[in-house]
Design a protein that fits this description.
This protein has 368 residues and is an alpha+beta fold. The protein folds into four domains: 2-186, Cyclophilin (Beta Barrel), CATH 2.40.100; 200-236, no CATH class; 242-323, RRM (RNA recognition motif) domain (Alpha-Beta Plaits); 333-366, no CATH class. Helix content is 19%, strand content 29%. The chain is built from seven helices and 18 strands. The strands form four sheets. Strands 1, 2, 3, 4, 5, 6, 7, 8 and 9 form a nine-stranded antiparallel beta sheet that branches. The protein is rod-shaped, with a radius of gyration of 39 Å. Residues 241-319 form the RRM domain.
Length: 368
């Protein structure tokens, strides 16, 4: 007489001691047929000791025997069977849990160690795991909190009765399907979910791990730059339509560079960076194209090209300064701007004068 118990860690086949423990085996078989154990959690696991389950509440204080469905709440528990005496000598022994008054319900445990003789007089053995010892090993390897509750959500997913020598009572209505998981099982849990990985790096190659480490370091550096104010946002990325050009000849001008690169598409801005004091070229420049496609074509075609007897180097810009549009700060003097409307440009001159007490007088003169 056997039962297949499917768990989220693997399958177990339990052979039952029907002759030695008929009442316990009847209780276990009928509870399995009622799908009572489906979705029950292994709520307590002690390494090299026992893994306990069979309580639908997952607290260790719930559960009831099959006799409660036949005779009511007064039959929630039944008396333990003591004879013949059986001992916890092997791994995989299956026993019903004594509730403290020598009464048994639905909770049972599976031994994870050998020679646990101090359990012999307390609880009632009714079966032995004959297949699935690797599943027992996985149970024994689980990490738990100080109350022996495993960090991972381990459950019985299904029970299949392979052989039942007992007749079915007509008062028992066996369900046609397994119970659906509750909202608390799926969401309100502090354990690692069934589909979550305990180790996110499991199965990854050394190259993949190195790449992930590099990305983490880049993200950390970006956060540091954001904290010190060098970046507005840690997730900010440079524009895709700007090229960085270096190793320029000092005599190369903005106009020359723009003419050379304009064959790849429209250029919005081409600027060689110069020294603020001497206005000498610092031999690198930024070229902003109208679209990313033109920028990409220029990147592939212009790297290592000879310009003014210098072989230039071209790369995508890593600067984010182009993402910001700074407004000119008002100073005593004249700020000129251009207004475009219907294809015509109208120049507008605004004269700003600061008074002594922080007041401002603005005089505007518009061209006709």
């Amino acid at each position: 007489m056997a039962v297949l118990v499917e768990t989220t860690l693997g399958d177990l086949v339990i052979d039952l001691f029907v002759k030695e423990r008929p009442k316990c085996c009847l209780n276990f078989l009928k509870l399995c047929k009622m799908k009572y154990y489906n979705l029950c959690q292994f709520h307590s696991i002690e390494q090299n000791y026992v893994a306990q389950t069979g309580d639908p509440t997952g607290t260790g204080r719930g559960g009831e025997s099959i006799f409660a469905s036949l005779y009511g709440d007064q039959a929630r528990f039944f008396e333990k069977e003591d004879l013949p005496k059986m001992k916890h000598t092997r791994i995989g022994i299956v026993s019903f849990v004594n509730n403290g008054d020598n009464m048994l319900g639905s909770q049972f445990y599976i031994t994870l160690g050998e020679n646990l003789d101090y359990l012999d007089e307390q609880h009632t053995i009714f079966g032995q795991v004959t297949e699935g010892l690797e599943t027992i090993e996985r149970l024994n390897e689980q990490l738990t909190d100080p109350n022996n509750k495993p960090f991972k959500d381990i459950r019985i997913s299904h029970t299949i009765v392979l052989d039942d020598p007992f007749d079915d009572d007509k008062r028992l209505k066996y369900p046609s399907r397994s119970p659906s998981p509750t909202y608390e099982m799926l969401v309100k849990t502090d354990q690692i979910a069934l589909d979550e990985k305990e180790n996110e790096d499991e199965g990854k190659t050394a190259e993949e791990l190195a790449e992930e480490m590099k990305l983490r370091e880049m993200a950390e550096q970006a956060q540091i730059l954001e904290m010190v104010g060098d970046l507005k946002d840690a997730d900010e990325v440079p524009p895709e339509n700007v090229l960085f050009v270096c190793k320029l000849n000092p005599v190369t001008t903005d106009e020359d560079l723009e003419i050379i690169f304009s064959r790849f598409g429209k250029i919005n801005n081409c600027e060689i960076i110069r020294d603020r004091r001497t206005n000498d070229s610092l031999q690198y420049a930024f070229i902003e194209f109208d679209n990313a496609k033109s920028c990409e074509q220029a990147f592939f075609k212009m790297d290592n090209v000879l310009i003014d007897d210098r072989r230039i180097h071209v790369d995508f810009s890593q600067s984010v300064s182009q993402n910001y549009k700074y407004k000119p700060k008002a100073k005593n003097g004249v700020v000129k701007k251009e207004i475009r409307t219907k294809g015509f440009a109208i120049s507008e001159t605004t004269t700003i004068t600061f008074a002594e007490k922080g007041t401002t007088r603005i005089t505007e003169k518009k061209a006709s």
